[in-house]
Amino acid sequence: MKKYYITTPLYYVNSKPHIGHAYTTIAADVLARYLRSREKEVFFQTGTDEHGSNIEKTARLHGIEPQKWADDVARDFRNLWKTLHIDYDNFIRTTDAAHVKQVQLIFEKLIKDDEVYKGKYEGLYCSSCENFFDESELVEGKCPVHKKNAEKVREETYFFRLSKYEKPLLEYYKNNPGFLSPAYRANEILRFVEGGLKDISVSRTRVAWGIQISSDPAHTIYVWFDALLNYITGAGFELGNKNEKFDKTWPADVQLVGKEIYRFHAVIWPAMLMALGLPLPKKVYAHGWWTVDGEKMSKSRGNIVNPEDVVREYGLDPLRYFIFREVPFGQDGDFSNNSLKQRYNSELANDLGNLFSRTVNMINKYLDSEMPEKPGPSPLLEEMNAVQKGIDADIENLQFGSALDKIWKAVSVLNKKVDTEKPWVMAKTDPEKLKSFLHEMVWCLRLISSWLYPFMPDTSAKMHMHLAIGKPRAADVEPKKIEPLFPRKQ
Ligand code: MSP
Question: Domains in the chain, ordered, with CATH?
Answer without folding.
Answer: 336-467 (1.10.730.10)
